[in-house]
């Protein structure tokens, strides 16, 4: 049982489980950019990807196959290799007293696992018992706008439609989108291998497993995870998740009904002062957030905040966020930063 | 003043104003396919496009520049050259006692102009005074599902997010999407010329002019036209219209709140028996409508009808429809078919 929720106050031994994927690569980039205190970086993968060379901060690191002993001496593990892999290794990670920041959905709804968007519920991090879950990408982006607005008036109901990029299904899905689009343009359309349908000039409802209520898992994640992050257990939310032919940024059309009327300007002021948000709204030139605006950016972009013509207590807004970055890797690193004692000593 | 609302009971002289655009080309195809009774087809255009040769039913037709006298002897005009052109020639068309079926937004909200989706309000057609308006593409698709469901229980509120193809901005926008995507894939991304932003692996909120309420014209069309077509003057509707990198089919995520609870199966049964709708819903294989399903198809595709988890009196559903076909050209020809006396004699 760990005594302190914090990471040791020294350069850390950090392991990345699933370092060759889109999120893993972004993690490496962000850990470097933000100068995360690392003395030893261990890259772990399946036996298939082991042996791959990665350059990080001028050093060559060879990816190793993950085994039970891989976590010996490790302080912190970032896992982004899927739920099954996280579940497989969680006991080894715990045994070696490393903290796991898990990007999969495996532990998100577990009672003693904080589910954290650092701009929204940073205080939840320190209650961890060795595992902290990184929320689903669409949920992170949504929580960043729901949280500040909920401070003005309680949110009664949210209806959201997503426009999700191929990156949500990983690097191979991004590569497939480019390949299938090229073939389509050459007059030689081909079938998809990675995603269930071709995304070349096409779109489809999210391909996560369907539940009996005819919502898919991705949509249920938005509902359940938003409730946990925002600490609104009965939040009413309905989502339609759609994959669109975009490479790495998600967009969301969000309708939010409040207990009381919120004026548009009040909401805009609040969003503008909120962390993690860049406000993009130029009505005269009809310029609002686009996926291209947030590519490789930390902040999500929000705009087109307007009073819902169908309900005086509701607002409509539009947001875009980089799925790989704020939707996954950046959020995980920001969680880790909360665990650095020095960040708390400074306060 | 015309005495009968019907077209003369004989092969007709038909003029197409704006025959070289995407909708114009589709009109030619559909008039042929449906064997619309035409003895003389006149293709009219701006002076720039005049002289173009078009083959139709084995005959070569040369596009003529539209002038005041162009409508002499014409029984029926299909106009799809934009609102300004329709307004410019409407008096000449009326003077020659031709009936105008107008695809622009110029007359849609005018009091004495029927706005018609033939599966929804065919009876409105015969009240025309020389002009009948073809609704906006997104509205046509939406009205096809709202109308039958409103028969089960009154619709209280609709929230819709659209996924609109480049075709809504015309053939040049479709060509641009293909060109810019090709350049993007070649590592040479270029700026858009036709649409305000590149749609290559990008999307953006609909570029129609913004109103003071921060809804764009496209969204207000959905609100106002739906009210007129469905004859629900106070229908509460909010729309977020988005252009996505799709070539010719629109999709819509629709949330519908009813006065009373409608069970999912009841709604599905109603939609399945409704004209103009193909129901696509295979839950086991996670297969629902996609833009590719409706390409060049008459029917829209509807599926994923489910009880909204955030409101027991609301349903969520998903639809796709060919923007050029049912969203424009086919709907116009179906309106014209109502005006054929023989179709009424047969009843």
Residue-averaged pLDDT of chain A: 96
Helix-strand topology string of chain A: EHEEEEEHEEHEHEHEEEHEHEEHH
* Order of adjacent strands in the largest pleated sheet of chain A: 5-2-1-6-7-8
Number of helices, counting only DSSP H or I runs of 4 residues or more of chain A: 9
Question: What CATH architecture label of the largest domain in chain A applies?
Answer: 2-Layer Sandwich
The fraction of residues in strands of chain A falls at: 15-25%
CATH superfamily of the largest domain in chain A: Dihydrodipicolinate Reductase, domain 2
State the name of the first-level CATH class of the largest domain in chain A.
Alpha Beta
| Unreliable residue runs of chain A | none
The count of strands of chain A amounts to: 16
The end-to-end distance of chain A, rounded to whole angstroms, is: 27 Å
Q: How would the blueprint of this fold be written?
A:
The structure is a homodimer of 347-residue chains.
Chain A: E1 12-17, H1 22-33, E2 38-45, E3 53-56, E4 59-62, E5 64-65, E6 76-79, H2 83-95, E7 99-102, E8 131-133, H3 137-152, E9 155-163, H4 171-185, E10 204-205, H5 217-230, E11 236-240, E12 242-243, E13 249-258, H6 264-272, E14 277-279, H7 291-294, E15 300-307, E16 314-322, H8 325-338, H9 341-345
Parallel strand pairs in A: 1-2, 1-6, 2-5, 6-7, 7-8, 9-11, 14-15
Antiparallel strand pairs in A: 3-4, 9-13, 10-12, 13-16, 15-16
Helix pairs in contact in A: 1-8, 3-5, 3-6, 3-8
């Amino acid at each position: 049982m760990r005594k302190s929720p914090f990471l040791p106050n020294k350069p850390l031994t950090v392991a990345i489980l699933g370092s060759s994927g889109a999120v893993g690569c972004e993690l490496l980039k962000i850990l470097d950019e933000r100068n995360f205190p690392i003395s030893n970086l261990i890259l772990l993968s399946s036996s298939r990807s082991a042996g791959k060379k990665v350059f990080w901060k001028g050093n060559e690191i060879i990816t190793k196959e993950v085994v039970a002993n891989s976590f010996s001496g490790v302080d912190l593990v970032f896992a982004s290799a899927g739920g099954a892999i996280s579940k497989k290794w969680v006991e080894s990670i715990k045994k070696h007293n490393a903290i796991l920041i898990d990007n999969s959905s495996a532990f998100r709804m577990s009672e003693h696992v904080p589910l954290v968007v650092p701009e929204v519920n940073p205080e939840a991090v320190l209650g961890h018992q060795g595992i902290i879950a990184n929320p689903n990408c669409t949920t992170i982006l949504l929580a960043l706008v729901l949280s500040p607005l909920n401070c003005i008036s309680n949110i009664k109901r949210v209806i959201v439609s997503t426009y999700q990029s191929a990156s949500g299904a990983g690097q191979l899905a991004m590569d497939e989108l480019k390949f299938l689009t090229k073939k389509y343009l050459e007059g030689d359309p081909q079938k998809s291998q990675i995603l269930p349908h071709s995304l070349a000039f096409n779109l489809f409802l999210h391909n996560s497993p369907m539940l009996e209520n005819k919502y898919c898992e991705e949509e249920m994640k938005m509902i359940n995870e938003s409730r946990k992050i925002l600490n609104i257990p009965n939040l009413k939310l309905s989502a339609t998740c759609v994959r669109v032919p975009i490479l790495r940024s998600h967009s969301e059309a969000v309708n939010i009904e409040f207990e009381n009327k919120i004026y548009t300007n009040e909401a805009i002021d609040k969003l503008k002062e909120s962390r993690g948000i860049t406000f993009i709204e130029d009505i005269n030139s009809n310029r609002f957030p686009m996926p291209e605006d947030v590519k490789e950016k930390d902040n999500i972009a929000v705009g087109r905040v307007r009073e819902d013509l169908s309900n005086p207590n509701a607002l409509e807004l539009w947001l875009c966020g980089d799925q790989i970055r704020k939707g996954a890797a950046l959020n995980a690193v920001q969680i880790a930063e909360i665990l650095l004692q020095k960040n708390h000593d400074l306060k």
